[in-house]
Structure formats: C-alpha cells, structure tokens
Amino acid sequence: MEKTTDVLPLTMNSSEKQETVCIFGTGDFGQSLGLEMLQCGYSIVFGSRNPRMSSLLPNGAEVLSYSEAAQKSDIIIIAIHREHYDFLTELTEVLNGKILVDVSNNLKIKQYPESNAEYLAQLVPGAHVVKAFNTISAWALQSRALDASRQVFVCGNDSKAKQRVMDIVRSLGLTPLDKGSLMAANEIENYPLQLFTMWKFPFYLSAVLCVFFFFYCVIREVIYPYVYEKKDRTFRLAISIPNRVFPIAALTLLALVYLPGVIAAILQLYRGTKYRRFPDWLDHWMLCRKQLGLIALGFAFLHVLYTLVIPIRYYVRWTWTNRTIAQSKLGYLTLILCTAHTLVYGGKRFLSPSSLVWYLPSAYVIALIIPCTVLVIKFILILPCIDKTLTRIREGWERNPKFSESAVNGKTDI
Q: Which of 123, 210, 253, 413 has the fewest C-beta atoms lying within 10 Å of its C-beta?
C-alpha cells in the first residue's frame, strides 16, 4: 500500500475542470513538482515502471504504467535521466503529437554531443519537445525558498507547446523566460553547471598565489636566518607567515578583480568600437571577477581573525579591515585604501637595502605591483580626454563605421 501526503489545491475552483498533467518518474524532483502542481489545481498522474512500488506520492495523484499514464494527458513531464530514455521508443505511437517537457541535466558540460532535449526529440520525432524546469531544484519546490531562483528557462520548436508549458510555469508562481528554439537547450542544460566552472579558475589562482608567497616568505624569514645566523625560526610557519600571506593574497586578488576591466577598456580604445568580442581568456576572466572578489574577502577575513585572536603586535590588529568594504561602486576606493595601507605599513623599509634577503625584496613589494599597475592605468583612463572617447565607444560610437557594414555581411567576430 502506498504512503501518501495530504494536499489541498490552492488555486483550483471546484466548478472548474482540472487540467491533467502526466509525470514520468517518481523520484525526488518528480514528486516535488507533482505536489506543487496539485496544490495549484492540476490533476496529476505519474508514470512508473513499477506502479505498485512507488511510495511517498502526493494524495490525489494516480500512479500507472508509462503507457497508461501517457494516455491520460497531452502534456508529459519527463523527470528521468537521459540514460533511461530508451523505453520511450516503445511508446512512439502513444506519444505522437503530445508535449514532452524535458527537465534533465548532465553531470558535466559537453557530456554528450547533443543536448538531452534534442536527443529526446530524435527518439520521439512525432512529439513536441520543450526544455524547462531544469534550473529549479526539488529542494526549492519543497521548501518554497524565497532565496532560490524563480526563473525557468524554456525553449522549444513548437510555439503553441512552448506557450502551454510557460502557462504552467506561471501558475506555479515561477517566471518563465523564453530562450527560443530547441537549439538553446544545450545552453540551458549548462546553466546549473556554470557555477562550479566559474569557481575553478579563481580557486586554482588563489592556490598558486598562496603557495608562491608562502615559500617566498619561508625563504626570507626561515631559511635565510638559519643559513647565515643559525637561528631557528620555524615557529613562524604556523602563525607569522600565514598571517603575511593572507593579506598579500587578498590585495592581489582584489587587484585582479579590476585588472580585466582596465584591459577591456584599453582594447575598446584601441579598436574604436565595442562591437567586437574580447579574447576568450579575457572574457572568461571577466566572468570570474565576482568569485575572485569573494575569495579575496575570505583571505582578508582570515587575516583579521589571525590578528585579533593570535597575540601579535598590537598595531597590526587593524590591518586590512577596510577590505570588508562591499564590492560595489566602492570597489576602487577599497583597492586604493588597501594599497595605501600596504605602502604605509612598509614605509621606508621598502626602499632600504637591509630589507633585501638574497636580493629578494619583501613580499609586500611584490604584492604592490599589480594593484599599483591597475590604479595607474585606471587614473589614465579617467582623464577627461580619454574617458570621453571611451564613454562614446561604450554608447555605440565607432571610430571605423565600415566595421558595421562588414558585420551586416557576416564578416565580424561578434
């Protein structure tokens, strides 16, 4: 006997005829979506390979075999993995002319040559395949979390089928966004994976910076005193050196947040137009700026925590607290304050020959290279004569109007 969950329709009037929607699959997402649709007044029928084994389904939902369930509705939501789509070929006649809503995702980008929705359309050529709901999680449907994404990307080749799916999305209190034909399904299926893709480069870069500056400080503060003065300063490995690496990494990453914007401005000035793509490396770098800023903020927090908890010199306690300023319009002010703090902290020691160890300058000197470069170039870019031209370019003005003509003829790299 199946376990059920009692639900009451929230929006359905008893005098109205309920629209029936079929859901293939009784997993977490299928159950959550079915429960949500029941509460919004839909009649739900589940298709399962083992109808008698299905459990924890909402009260009022019918569970049948795939073939029997498909005959109950002309809208079928496919809430199963792509690896199990093969059985659909046996239902070609039953599914002919029906709307199939593909909600699947992959484990990694470009896992298959075509999108799951396009593959589904190939298996059942007589059906109208629509891609939707793949960016909404079962948890968000169950908890009705306000902080979860409420946007549902929809694409499909049949406009009427796509419109019906978008009507269902609206009835669930979500916001549909039409992405066009089924060719956009590949892009939509990559959305849930892009968060981790955008974090990969910042994490690797942060790790490289930390390792480099850690060993750099070890050479200056541990190995050098041991070789020339026979002093054991290995105790600095646990406290002093990490507390030196954290602010250096934070300042460097903060500068790297704004460096790609400066490079992009220089490219636009050089090209005299904004209607040309940036190089792939620059484009990816600009997409990762938010992640770089968050990691920089994390390093700054660790530095503040070290200086407040560990008994180090009292005047270091307020080091880098200004890094907690929000990354918004105050971003450049934050960079200026952090750079100024490093300059003040170093003082005359930066230029003193005694600060050199094996001809290696202080780590703070190296940390100032990128921030100072960004600030100097930014200062040049905001000069009225340059800023005026850059603003016009970003508003659509082009130095070479012939470029627009070549774009119309398909000769551009936009």
A: 413
For residue 1, pLDDT beyond 50: no
Distance of CA 365 to the CA centre of its chain: 33
Q: Which residues share a beta bridge with 152?
A: 176
Q: Are strands 20-24 and 75-78 parallel, antiparallel or unpaired?
A: parallel
User: Phi and psi at residue 345, in whole multiples of 5°?
Assistant: -60, -40
Please report the pLDDT score of residue 401 as a whole number.
65
Q: Phi first, then psi: give them for residue 106, nearest 5 degrees.
A: -105, 170
Spatial contact of 97 and 84, defined as CB atoms under 8 Å apart: no
SS3 19: coil
Q: Other C-beta atoms within 10 Å of 338: how many?
A: 24
The verdict on pTM exceeding 0.70 is no
DSSP 360: B
Sign of CA dihedral 103, 104, 108, 110: negative
Give Cα 202 to chain centroid, integer Å.
12
SS3 272: coil
Q: Report DSSP letters for 99-167, one per residue.
A: EEEE----SSTTSSSS-HHHHHHHHSTTSEEEE-STTS-HHHHHHT-TTS--EEEEEES-HHHHHHHHH
Alpha carbon distance 327, 206 (integer Å): 18
3-class secondary-structure state, position 40? coil
Bridge partners (DSSP) listed for residue 62: 45
Residue 32 phi, psi dihedral angles, 5° rounding: -65, -45
The total of other beta-carbon atoms located within 10 Å of residue 300's CB is: 26
Q: Rounded to an integer, what is the distance from CA 395 to the centroid of its chain?
A: 27
The alpha carbon dihedral of 352, 358, 359, 361 has a sign of negative
- Per-residue CA distances from 359 to 124, 211, 354, 364, 372 (Å): 71, 20, 10, 15, 22
Amino acid, single-letter form, for residue 272: G
- 274-322: pLDDT as tens digits: 878 888 889 888 888 888 988 998 898 888 887 776 554 444 333 433 3
